[in-house]
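W.,

You were right to be curious about this one. When I first looked at the sequence I had no strong expectations either way, so I just let the prediction run and decided to look at it fresh. Below is the sequence, 263 residues in total, followed by the output.
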Amino acid sequence: MNAPSITDTAYTVGRPAVEEFDGLGFTRIRRVFDAPALRDLTAEIEARLQGAPTHDGGVPGSYLCVPNVWRHGEVAARFVLSRRLGRIAADLLGVRSVRILYDVAMMRRPGDGAVPWHVDQARFPFSSDRVVTLCLHLHDVLPECGPISFAAGSHRLGREWLAAPADRIDPSSYGIEEISTEQFASGDASLHLGWTLHGAQVNRSDRPVLTLGIVYIDGDIEVADPVSEAQARELRRWMPGAQVGRVPDTPMNPVVYRAPIAI
């Protein structure tokens, strides 16, 4: 019998990471994959990004972006659909199963500008907050590369700040003083809740940084009534055919991890 692929072997998330994720709205997982495991994925994504548009992933900023690479590359599909990453997302969310909302490959080049503070879930109509974005870092991300920053505890804010212009959100205006900006090694993953404020600074280094982002949702989450045309548009784009009041069980949103039922 062949040994299971690294993308399907379990990675156990410890209790400290779960508690940090619940309390702060984000966490970092070290060495989810080693460098050799990421070599083919990195090469495939770099090829896909050749000639790619700037920020076509729905978030403002300056970077190259290709969404849903899992549908266009065999190696990317192996990672995006992996049980290893899916279980990490499910364990942090505290749910039995997760399905994909979408993935996005992003490259921030030398000199690429800042990504303003934003939250991912404001764009999507869902019945709960069980939404998490996993960023698998494919290059080392040093401080001068403009790594992702998180506003600690922002997932617990009310939603009144959503009325602020997208490029003028300031976490300190809402009483948030703790901003976490950390460097990452290739193979590390950062995960943040859908309502966690995050952004990034200018890439002041002399090299690009490559990230594969995957947005997971609770496998049993339901679609809510869109509250804006933007949400209705995103619903059509990422969950085509999904109906309000039902689980978005579409070919674009497969379940990638389901915990076994204890007997």
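Here's what jumped out at me. The chain has five helices and eleven strands. And, maybe more interesting for your project: The longest helix spans residues 35-49.

Coffee later to discuss?

I.
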